[in-house]
TrEMBL record:
Recorded superkingdom: Eukaryota
Name this polypeptide is given: HMA domain-containing protein
The keyword Lipoprotein belongs to this UniProt entry's keyword annotation: yes
Family to which this protein belongs: Belongs to the HIPP family.
Keywords: Lipoprotein, Metal-binding, Methylation, Prenylation
Biological source species: Manihot esculenta (Cassava)
The keyword Chloroplast is annotated on this UniProt entry: no
GO MF entries: metal ion binding
InterPro entries: HIPP4/7/8/17/18/19, HMA_dom, HMA_dom_sf
Amino acid sequence: MGKGSETTAMEIDASKSTSDQINPRFSINVLQLLKSAQMQHGLRHGDYARYRRYCTARLRRLYKSLKFTHGRGKYTRRAITESTVTEVRFLHLVLYLAERAWSHAMEKRQLPDGPNARQRIYLIGKLRKAVKWADLFARLCATKGDSRTSLEAEAYAAYMNGNLLFEQDRNWDTALKNFISARAVYEELGKYGDLENQLLCRERVEELEPSIRYCRHKIGESNLQTSDLLQIGEMEGPALDLFRAKLEAVMAEARSQQAASLTEFHWLGHKFPISNAKTRVAILKAQELEKDLRGPTADSLPAEKKLAIFDKIFTAYHDARSSIRSDLVSAGNADSVKDDLSGLDKAVSAVLGQRTIERNQLLVTIAKSKLTRGRDDKNEKVTRPEELVRLYDLLLQNTSDLSDLVSSGRDTKHEEVAFSEECAVRNLAFRAQRCFYVAKSYSLAGKRTEAYALYCRARSLAENALQKFQSLNNSDEI
């Protein structure tokens, strides 16, 4: 009896090993593979077009190497089934088809003014295609992949299904289930494997959390405030880009409601009426972003983040100016309306000029920090004095343009005169600092006599600027 059962067990083991040899189980570390491809091919900087091109090129190479092309003449797609998958590259093929469709959808989502109605239909169509390929990938991995690969493929398919429902603004409960399912898998996988894989899984869990919280907010299971959503939106990662787009839509709706109360723009003693809703929303958006640069957490913001905020401020003010100038064209012969719009355009342009100066001063601060850094740090580019000279040239041009803009016009108020004087003093301070760095470049070039003369000139200009700042009682600039 014992001998017979032992023989049976041996036969089962033998049949299992024979089965594994005939139908081998393939292994793909899905998250690690995709993260590596995304970071190396554009998504580190949010360039979905570049990543899509990479996916297309990768697919072309896979089709060719697998001899799985679709005919030389008439295109006839060859279906990928369980019997087709004879090696791991077939699974890669399906995965990159899903990634290409997803990146194409995200590329449309990133259009400057957002996708219009027709583009949004196209975007959702691409997400549906990504879901189709992701589901096929999960089914194939269930039969052809090992247990870990199958689990990761299920999480990937759940994530893609969640993205589609998230973008469609419907079935929030189903979207929530998909995101929770994906999170549960990555939480479990984050407990095993090498350190890199554990970190990637934890990162993905953190990236999924905002989408889960937003879905709960939409179905009424949480009472998230707008400020909480904004805080979540500051997180980074490709998995959060759809969430940030959704957040921007929520914020645009909130701004439209707040903009109704923004009836005037105050600037240097002037009050300009704002009648156009688009102008109001653009100015309100810029003012909200300016608060981020002046708020209690502004000092802790990294320089790259501040530069990104400045770029958004410039875009908002340019949108406001574009709207104002469109109104000027359509104003006709109404002189009072034209005067108000011209004054508002001048005010917005002046504020834009001020923010440009602030941004360039931030670039100067960044450059100075690299100038004083040790030259033995080979990973960091050291600033040369000539680069600071160019930045100060920009600042001199900025202050001159701003002064000319403010002093132009017939009815110049006392505040405008004072502002022009302050611009002149700041121009003098920038000249002193420019002269100092010109002297420094001469000194490094071994031209000691010229450097000495320029240092003396820089000191004279600095002393003059300091006296004038003191006469203006401007302690912030001193």
